[in-house]
């Protein structure tokens, strides 16, 4: 594995997680020549067909296959070179019957999951990792599971006494959490309201007070990436998820000038220096 090249590993739970908070950054890095590897823990089998236009025509039995095709389409749109599926079953939302399945990702052994991630980190040798923050975006049990396992894997991959069978140690330089920023959510809502576009995705049922508490305050994130040049690729990746994303999804309707940034928070690092302001690889001694 060529370690002089910039290499990025995104650690997520379901097909489509890779788009919302980090798709623009991923596309930007791939344009810079960074090798991008996406690790997805489950097949997203518990997702419903949310797109009303497709609900009657899609057989739920086919959903696992369709979601893999959607993921492959998204990976192409975002310049993701390699997708690794860990093969766990989607646990469904908290409180749903899928939670009880023995093969559900949330019921997997955390040390064992971390061991599989360590093996991938040692194989691909990324300098930068990112994953969900401790809220899992919105509390999905699979998002919380990948968050915890990614953190363990970052801490253990460089220590050969952990998982000695998983290959020679490799210590990534930085682990970031992907942050959904409060001020951006508010700007999105304001933009839609001001142009009389109906709110959806749960925004409409939320009180002003609830909405005001959503997301991470902007001054708490460490790294803001300008994704204006790759926003069209991010939108193209969303369009790959025909079963998951309705054609009136707010992302397709909101003014592009409120979607031009993605936000990351440095969660762990093995290198000296302050967190990077605008580039996940800033200050690291690797090729471009
Ligand atoms: Zn998800």
What order do the SSEs take from the amino end to the carboxyl end, as H and E? EHHEHEHEHHEHHEHE
The CATH architecture classification is 3-Layer(aba) Sandwich
| CATH-level-4 superfamily name | LmbE-like
CATH topology: Rossmann fold
Overall residue-averaged pLDDT value: 92
The computed structural class is alpha/beta
CA distance, first residue to last residue: 16 Å
Strand content: 15-25%
What gross morphology would you assign?
globular
Counting structural domains, the number is: 1
Q: What's the CATH C level?
A: Alpha Beta
Q: Biggest sheet, open or closed, and with what strands and sense? A: 7 strands, mixed
Strand sequence of the main sheet, in spatial order? 3-2-1-4-5-7-6
Oligomer type:
single chain
Helix content: 25-40%
Descriptive terms for the model:
32% helix, Rossmann fold, alpha/beta, 288 residues
Protein described:
The protein has 288 residues and is of the alpha/beta class. The chain has a single domain (7-180, 217-269), classed as Rossmann fold. It contains nine helices and seven strands; from the N terminus they run E-H-H-E-H-E-H-E-H-H-E-H-H-E-H-E. A seven-stranded mixed beta sheet has the order 3-2-1-4-5-7-6, sandwiched between helices. Helix 3 (63-78) runs antiparallel to helix 9 and helix 4 (110-124) packs across helix 6. It is globular. The mean pLDDT is 92. Bound molecules: zinc ion. The site of zinc ion (ZN) has 5 residues, from loops.
How is the secondary structure organized here?
Blueprint: E1 7-12, H1 17-20, H2 23-31, E2 35-42, H3 63-78, E3 82-88, H4 110-124, E4 128-132, H5 136-139, H6 141-156, E5 174-179, H7 182-194, H8 208-212, E6 223-226, H9 231-240, E7 261-269
Parallel strand pairs: 1-2, 1-4, 2-3, 4-5
Antiparallel strand pairs: 5-7, 6-7
The structure holds zinc ion.
Residues 13-14, 17, 140, 143 line the site of zinc ion.
């Amino acid at each position: 594995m060529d370690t002089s090249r910039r290499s990025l590993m995104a650690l997520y739970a379901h097909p489509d997680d890779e788009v919302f908070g980090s798709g623009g950054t991923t596309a930007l890095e791939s344009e810079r020549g960074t090798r991008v590897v996406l690790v997805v823990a489950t097949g997203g089998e518990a997702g419903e067909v949310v797109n009303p236009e497709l609900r009657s025509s899609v057989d739920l039995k086919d959903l696992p296959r369709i979601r893999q095709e959607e993921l492959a389409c998204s990976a192409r749109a975002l310049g993701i070179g390699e997708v690794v599926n860990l093969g766990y079953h989607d646990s469904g939302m908290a409180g749903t019957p899928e939670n009880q399945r023995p093969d559900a990702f949330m019921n997997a052994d955390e040390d064992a999951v971390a061991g599989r991630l360590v093996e991938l980190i040692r194989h691909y040798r990324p300098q930068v990792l990112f994953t969900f923050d401790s809220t899992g975006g919105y509390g999905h049990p699979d998002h919380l599971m990948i968050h915890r396992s990614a953190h363990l894997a970052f801490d253990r991959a460089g220590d050969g006494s952990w998982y000695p069978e998983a290959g020679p140690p490799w210590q990534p330089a930085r682990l970031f959490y992907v942050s959904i920023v409060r001020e951006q959510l508010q700007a999105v809502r304001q933009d839609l309201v001001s142009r009389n576009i109906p709110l959806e995705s749960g925004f409409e049922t939320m009180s002003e007070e609830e909405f005001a508490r959503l997301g991470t305050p902007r001054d708490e994130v460490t790294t803001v990436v300008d994704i204006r040049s790759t926003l069209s690729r991010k939108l193209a990746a969303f369009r790959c998820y025909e079963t998951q994303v309705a054609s009136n999804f707010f992302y397709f309707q909101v003014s592009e000038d409120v979607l031009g940034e993605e936000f990351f928070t440095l969660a762990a690092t093995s290198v000296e220096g302050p967190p990077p302001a605008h580039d996940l690889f800033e200050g690291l001694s690797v090729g471009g």
